[in-house]
Amino acid sequence: MQEARMTAMQRKLKIKWSDFVLALKLIDRAQIWIAICLLPLAIFMLLPLVYLFNHAFKPLHELFKFPPTFIVREPTTGNFSELFAMTESTIVPVSRYVFNSVVVTLLSSVAMVITGAMCAYPLSKHPFPGSKLVLGLIMLSLLFATEAIAIPRFIVIQSLGIMNTYLGHVLPLVAMPVGVFLLKQFMDQVPNELLEAAKIDGAKEFKIFLRIVMPIVTPAIATISILAFQSAWGNIETSTLFMQEDSMKTLPFYMSTLTAGLSNSVARQGAAAAGALIMFLPSLLIFLIFQRKVITTMAHSGIK
Amino acid sequence: MSGAPARPVNRKPGISERMNFLLKEMWKYRLSYLFILPFMAMFIVFILIPVVSGVLLSFTYFNAFDFPSWRGWLNYQNLFSQDIIFLQHVLPNSFKFAVFVGPVGYILAFLLAWLIAQLPNTMRTWYALAMYAPSLSAGIAMTVVWTVMFTGDRSGYINSFLLKWGIIEKPVLFLLDKDFLLNIMIIVSIWSSMGIGFLAILAGILNVDRQLYEAGRIDGISSRLQEVWYITIPMMKPQMMFAAIMAIVHTIKSGGIGVQLSGTNPTPNYAGQLLIDHINDYGFIRFELGYASAISIVVLLMCYALSKFFGYLFAPKEDE
């Protein structure tokens, strides 16, 4: 009997395999064309990255060449050593800013994703009284220009007494309406029957959320994680407005002080270029890791 | 529901009865409220309260130092009757900018996402990275790359090409000329508009079940175009909606491009002045925060109307 099953499975596999080959042959040519046609555009779009990488390794005389050379001619690591040497004489070392940034970014992006997902789930699946109102408010807040609420926010932070604390960095970032909205849109696609079935099997809400909904919306989670990381890592606002002590400020703020008001001077331009690359690398890494996650989960998600 | 007492059908329930029913409903969904609590607490404290106070500020004169003084509708009246810069430059600029950047960026995002979704896995990540790169580098390189391209003397790339080919006699001051600035801003914005909306669409397209295409093929779908129209787009309505709203938000909220490119705020002859630049101009250069708040309320209302319009546009097809 086992043998019979084996052969059945083998047959199945064989059919699947030949289908796969056929599909590959059909798509192959189209794929190559797409890849070739998109290549110039892709290269053009990648220019800023190429520029960032090359710029950081340029010696001083190349930094100021005009028209600028995109590709570095005589690469040097001098810019990086200059960047780290600069803070040796100051009270706050660069490592402190890095530490602050890492703590703040990790805490806030994890909090953003978790609270966002938890909020999106009932909005999508439970028609609780007031859910329309909550969703409307979140959508409306997407549209509000944040420039206009800087001062009221400052007053709120001040009256909460969380200035110069990590909470002052993290809490204002946690409410990310974009995340809730995107996650809600993805959760709308999760079939209700699946949740009903789990409920009949005796799963509690929290288990349904964790075991069924979350795995299906992993692509959305990955996308939001990229965005959350980017917004937290590059955030200057909380450092400028809510932190008065230098030791509590973050790396992007320090980077902005390197170039602000110095745009015409020669000094520190190399360090700023190196700093820009250091600021950028984590975003790039996070993007690559999570985008890959999006693609692999797509390939394996069987529930639909 | 079986436990609820049978109510006469033709009698409207009284207020206390309705309150009772609402409270019961709310108790039934107590877990849902617990789920949204952490986010909503932060949302109310750091977004809702500031926004509401922003609305209140828009009715006052406030210079950030003295206590705001009540002005009623005066800010709004001034905005629509006195503010010549707003009416002559900012509004038409923003309108033109939005009309070009919004739809083009949106369609391009869908097109590119669909093309990239057709590629094999490893290639896909790299192409996605390439398209997302301008948003990823978040303006660090944006101005550097583009200002270099459009620099106003013969050292700028575009100028030197045009000179070499004999199309122009002398270099054009692209970034300071009011005929060029807005158009260049539109190009740059489209270039950097493959942001979160693009990623959402890409995830959405990949999320569509492959079996549906098989089924479609059996039902007589023959070309890729038909596949897109009959399967992909209907299946990913939620993501399309998200991307549409993000496109609106991106176009209306993007400001500062003209300022960055031309290097001055206000931009030369107000050629590249957008709504957000106008808010920044009044809010953080002239410190008329009440007036700036009024402008942002108007911006909010415009965004709201637009997103409603898009919702209306997308909604009827949802039932099909």
Q: N-to-C SSE series of chain A?
A: HHHHHHHHHHHHHH
Total helices of chain B: the number is 15
**Structural class, judged by helices and strands of chain B?**
mainly alpha
For this entry, what is the oligomeric state of its chains? heterodimer
* Number of strand elements of chain B: 2
Order of helices and strands of chain B: HHEEHHHHHHHHHHHHH
How many E-type strands of chain A?
A: 0
Q: How many strands, which pairing sense, and closed or not: the largest β-sheet of chain A?
A: none
Average pLDDT confidence of chain A is 79
End-to-end CA span of chain B: 32 Å
In percent, how much strand structure appears in the residues of chain A? under 5%
Could you explain how this protein is built, in words?
The complex is a heterodimer of chains A (304) and B (320). By secondary structure, chain A is mainly alpha-helical. Chain A has 14 helices and no strands. In chain A, helix 11 packs antiparallel against helix 14 (269-300). In chain A, 38% of the residues are buried. Chain B is mainly alpha-helical and 320 residues long. Chain B has 15 helices and two strands. Chain B has helices at 15-28, 30-57, 74-81, 84-117, 121-136, 142-150, 157-164, 178-191, 196-207, 210-218, 224-235, 237-253, 257-262, 275-285, 289-314; strands spanning 60-61, 69-70. In chain B, strand 1 and strand 2 form a beta hairpin. Chain B is flat. Classes of the chains: A mainly alpha (304), B mainly alpha (320). Chains A and B meet through helix 1, helix 4, helix 5, helix 6 and helix 7 of A and helix 1, helix 2, helix 4, helix 5 and helix 6 of B.
